[in-house]
Amino acid sequence: MSILKEMADAVVAGDVEACRALAEKAVAEGMDPVKAIQGGFSAGMDRVGRQFECGDMYLPEMMQAADAMNAGVAILKPHIESQQNGLIDSGKVLLATIQGDMHDIGKNIVKILISTAGFEVIDLGRNVMVSDIAERAEEEVVDVLGVSALMTTTMGYMPEVVEELEELGIRDRIIYLVGGAPVTEEWAREIGSDGYASDAAEAVRVVKELVRKKA
What we know:
Elements: H1 3-13, H2 16-28, H3 33-53, H4 59-83, E1 92-97, H5 105-116, E2 120-123, H6 130-140, E3 144-148, H7 152-155, H8 158-168, E4 175-179, H9 185-190, E5 195-197, H10 200-214
Parallel strand pairs: 1-2, 1-3, 3-4, 4-5
């Protein structure tokens, strides 16, 4: 069994100690920490998210899985940061999980990778009201707004963010990105967002590209 599969399985099982041990093993073996997070821990949370949405897993189990993943990520994060020394600030990014949605693991991974890529990150957390997201985007004068959703029932709020930004008169100056398990590139285009990312690593690439184009 590969170490990435072991990581994913440990997350699904909610095994904190196993996640820590596997993260330390990955570091010792010289594995790319981003690959370990994306291919191992994040892959496990993707499975957890699908089980949760289908009713095969309940909130306490999901939170236990999240704690396990966070324990592993905490060990890997310093090694990501050590690879990014010397980066200058590239802009300000606001992140939030949309209202009605309690899942923020994917957003948290994006936060880690975006911050180590040289961006200032403001994290509003999970279950954030659409109006609060837009108001903070205006207040903080952010360059990028990233919103995530786990469930199809909550992704329906994503186009409302566009409407709120337009009402505040700040839509044109903000790069609005969406992501999460049920979100597709087609949906992102349909609601008028500026981009879409299927995972955290892609989110970093998309943000860098769009910020560069807008500069």
